[in-house]
Amino acid sequence: MLPQFGIEPERFMLTWVSANEGEKFAEVVKDLVAKVKLVGPLGKVSERTGGELIG
Amino acid sequence: MGDKLNFAFYWTAGCGGCEVATLDIDEKILDVAELANIVLWPIAMDFKYEDIENMDDDNIDVSFINGAIRNTEQREIAELLREKSKVVVAFGACACHGGIPSLGNFHNKDEIFQEAYVDTISTNNPDNNLPTPKTEVAEGELTIPEFFDTVYKLDDLIEVEYYLPGCPPSTDLIIKAVEAIANDNLPPVGSVIASKKTVCDECDREKKEKKVKEFRRPYEVDVDPELCLLEQGIICCGSATTGGCGANCPTVNMPCRGCYGPTSEVADQGAKLLSAVASVIDSDDQEEIAKIAKDILDPGGTFYRFGMSNSLLKRKKLG
Known about the structure:
Chain A is mostly helical. Chain A contains 2 helices and no strands. In chain B, strand 6 and strand 7 form a beta hairpin. At the A-B interface, helix 2 of A face strand 8 and helix 12 of B.
């Protein structure tokens, strides 16, 4: 469904981290943040609707 | 004339079903005529926009507006009716949540024009003529309304006092709304005139454990008339959808499509439905889950069928 909304696959991640895997959790988050920074901001709703609310 | 209320009915981006639903209240329409003067109702009576423009502000007691807003004419008349009305009712799924037209928010203006005026098999348009807001002709300039990239629900543009959801709203709810107006017994501003509970709550089907190995469309299933449709692998939107319809669709073996919109507890109807449907998939195996999920051919259109304008994301990302 996310591609239908034009949302890049880099923005989505599904993974399993146990409560005692603190280091892994930090890595997973750093990794996702780096990927999302590369694709840039998603844009506010007003931007998504063409720069202004109506148009 | 003196003591009567003034009502206006207007139709923007919608199919006209709401107008038919208004007439479907049968002999009660006579009560409406008794109660109110109709000052605008383009489908049924001949009035001019000018008549409305010449009115004083707040001259109309209630404007019932059905349809979403997707072009400049619809925006202009919605704003005009707002200015002239004490109360505006968003009538039907399109005005409340965007409705079917808001599926256009999975595309943009150019894509919609390309499909509608060029690519459709029945279209013969060798010069690729597309609607243009302004055209110069010998006699002067011709204009038509400008089409937006995005389909909006009514309260994205103007303030709305009441919401009467549904595609179309049930005659019972229309009568309830009219009676509330007649008796000056309206609920608090902002109210949705429907149930506070879900469609599942009004559905008499037997609910057991939901475990689904395969999603199927209604025509592919010999439907058990007693059992919950979702348990039969038919995607039914009842669990995240406001009731008030009396669960009409599930009663006749058709799944709920979600036309009454989210309940007050739900922020994003499509996300909630996706979550509900994902939770009934009966598998722990990633590949099998992916295979089962592939049965849902158009998840965006299925889970946001009547409410893209009302979703958190509003539309497909532009550009």
